C-alpha cells in the first residue's frame, strides 16, 4: 500500500497532557458557525431530477447555484426541487492548538477549501468529493 498523506492528524490527548473536557468546551464555541451543506443539497436536487431527465451538462453538477428553470422539467418537479431543504450542516476547519504554561490556545485557520482526492467512489457517478469545496 502507498503512503497516503492526509490532512488529518490523530492525537492521543492523554499523551499530550491535554484535558479533553477543557478542549471540547473551547472548541464548542465554534458550533454555531456550522453552515448548510449546499453541495449535498444540490446533489440531492440533481439526483431527484435524474429520475425524469438525462442530464448531460456538467454545469448542472458543478454549479450549485445552477438555475434549474433552464432545464426542460415540468412545474411540479420544479416546485419539488425548490422546496428541498439542506439535510446536513458542516464546519470544515483547521486549528492550531498551543499549550503555553498549562493554558490552551486554539486558533482557527482560514479555510482554503479541500478536496477528498483519496475518497473511495464505487462507481463513475458525479461526486463532490472529487472537487474542491469550501465551507466557512
UniProtKB/TrEMBL annotation:
Highest taxon of the lineage: Bacteria
Protein name: Uncharacterized protein
Organism: Campylobacter geochelonis
Amino acid at each position: 500500500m502507498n503512503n497516503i498523506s492526509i490532512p488529518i492528524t490523530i492525537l492521543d490527548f492523554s499523551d499530550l497532557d491535554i484535558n479533553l473536557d477543557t478542549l471540547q468546551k473551547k472548541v464548542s464555541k465554534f458550533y454555531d458557525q456550522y453552515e448548510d451543506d449546499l453541495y449535498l443539497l444540490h446533489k440531492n436536487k440533481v439526483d431527484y431530477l435524474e429520475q425524469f431527465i438525462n442530464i448531460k451538462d456538467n454545469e448542472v453538477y458543478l454549479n450549485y447555484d445552477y438555475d434549474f428553470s433552464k432545464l426542460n422539467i415540468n412545474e411540479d418537479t420544479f416546485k419539488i426541487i425548490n422546496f428541498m431543504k439542506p439535510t446536513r450542516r458542516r464546519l470544515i476547519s483547521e486549528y492550531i492548538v498551543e499549550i503555553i504554561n498549562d493554558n490552551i490556545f486554539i486558533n482557527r485557520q482560514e479555510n482554503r477549501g479541500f478536496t477528498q482526492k483519496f475518497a473511495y467512489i464505487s462507481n463513475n457517478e458525479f461526486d463532490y468529493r472529487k472537487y474542491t469545496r469550501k465551507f466557512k
